Amino acid sequence: GAGVSQSPRYKVAKRGQDVALRCDPISGHVSLFWYQQALGQGPEFLTYFQNEAQLDKSGLPSDRFFAERPEGSVSTLKIQRTQQEDSAVYLCASSPTSGPYTRSNQPQHFGDGTRLSIL
Amino acid sequence: DAKTTQPTSMDCAEGRAANLPCNHSTISGNEYVYWYRQIHSQGPQYIIHGLKNNETNEMASLIITEDRKSSTLILPHATLRDTAVYYCIVSGNAGNNRKLIWGLGTSLAVNP
User: Fold this and answer.
1) Cβ of residue B105 closer than 8 Å to a chain A Cβ
2) Which of residues 43-82 of B touch A (CB under 8 A)?
């Protein structure tokens, strides 16, 4: 399909395990965002890439969270030594625009997320 | 913290217009108003956005007040499939300002 694709759709892990969540953005989209959504809450920003550069990682909750986008397309969010409070839906979004000179700001397009459950 | 205030929930009869309000009194000059919705177990879906002029697309209309401190999303003929949580967000257009800061949204129930 032409939309943002995330895998796996569901992930169950035991506390202390490492997990890796994948995001395939829309082809050609420069900007990529990761968000975390707890049950009953709105999404919360984690990190932002412009091509392969991680320009903002201020939302990552701890140093156990790591994101990369080495070739400027596919991105991986890795969580090390998972804790129960990491249980959430992790959303990825992409957008075609970057920089301050766009005339009409383009929206972010979201995948359906990865639902992570830590036992 | 979210820069917007929305009612927690609303109801609408099927076939009628749904008018969802949003207050964003601290919006700055270069910030856009975005509306997204989220249907259960799906990712957020983009609806519409605007800067200062009213906007319309195939999904909805966006009315922004002249002082830009509030806006209204209008679904002209609501259907049962429009039942979702609707988020109003203000966001800039440069670098880190483009991250979206979400509130709790309005849970819209469209009733038959």
Assistant:
1) yes
2) 43-46, 49, 51
Nearest-Cα distance to chain A for B95, in Å, is: 6
Smallest Cβ–Cβ distance between B34 and the set A31, A91, A107 belongs to A107
Do B104 and A45 lie within an 8 Å CB cutoff?
no
Question: How far apart are alpha carbons A79 and A18 in whole angstroms?
Answer: 6
A65/B56 Cα distance (integer angstroms): 40
Q: What are residue B62's DSSP bridge partners?
A: B55, B73
How confident is the prediction along chain A (119 residues), in pLDDT tens digits per residue?
A: 589 999 999 999 999 999 999 999 999 999 999 999 999 899 999 999 999 999 999 999 999 999 999 999 999 999 999 999 999 999 999 998 654 444 456 788 999 999 999 99
- Strand pairing class (A44-50; A109-110): unpaired
CA distance A23 to B85: 24
CB-hemisphere CA count at 13 Å for B111?
4
What does the H/E/C string look like for chain B? CCCCECCCEEEEECCCCEEEEEECCCCCCCCEEEEEEECCCCCCEEEEEECCCCEECCCCEEEECCCCCEEEEEECCCCHHHCEEEEEEEECCCHHHHCCCCCCCEEEEEEC
